[in-house]
């Protein structure tokens, strides 16, 4: 058996992954930025956009280890499952999104992988957040690109803006 036949993009009959990438410099320590990023409730407090994220149900917890899983519910009854793949405090946090259902997600996305990479930049922290989404089929590539531009990227921007506002501080006060 060929291992690669079981990978999501092979099952979807496409090697295409649609990606978004956003970077910010936060005026705070790498440890503080990491702890903020991986906090269980940060997603409902700081991810803003349409459709709105209403809540999450923790299925495997707590939300501080590989394998932790929750289901996020958006307005219009759209849902997705989010699972932590791996993290290395304070530099790396990766999670997977699966089981996209209803509303804006219906029949569009097979899987998503998100990675936060953090690096010290003097007294600041450089944050890079990358999303890669696998379309449900090759016929959905253009639709997924539009979704990533019109819906997903604004969510990413809202989170980065809120994180900066919450964590930026006077560098000389520390």
Please list the strands of the largest sheet in the order they lie side by side.
1-7-6-5-4-3-2
Anisotropy-based shape: globular
Tally of contiguous helical segments: 4
Q: What's the SSE pattern?
A: HEHHEEEEEEH
Q: How many strand segments?
A: 7
Mean pLDDT: 87
The level 1 CATH classification is Alpha Beta
Q: Would you tell me the structural class of the helices and strands?
A: alpha+beta
Helix content: 25-40%
CATH topology, by name, is Alpha-D-Glucose-1,6-Bisphosphate, Chain A, domain 4
Radius of gyration over C-alpha positions, nearest whole angstrom: 17 Å
* Spatial separation of the terminal alpha carbons: 56 Å
Main sheet attributes: strand count, strand direction, barrel closure: 7 strands, antiparallel
Q: Compute the number of structural domains.
A: 1
Fourth-level CATH superfamily = START domain
Named at the architecture level, the CATH assignment is: 2-Layer Sandwich
Task: Describe, in plain words, how this protein is organized in 3D.
The protein has 174 residues and is an alpha+beta fold. The chain has helices at residues 8-11, 30-38, 42-46, 141-167, and strands at 18-26, 53-60, 69-74, 78-88, 92-101, 109-121, 124-135. Strands 1-7-6-5-4-3-2 form a seven-stranded antiparallel β-sheet, covered by helices on one side. A hairpin with a 3-residue loop joins strand 3 and strand 4. It starts with 7 loop residues before the first helix and ends in a 7-residue tail after the last helix.
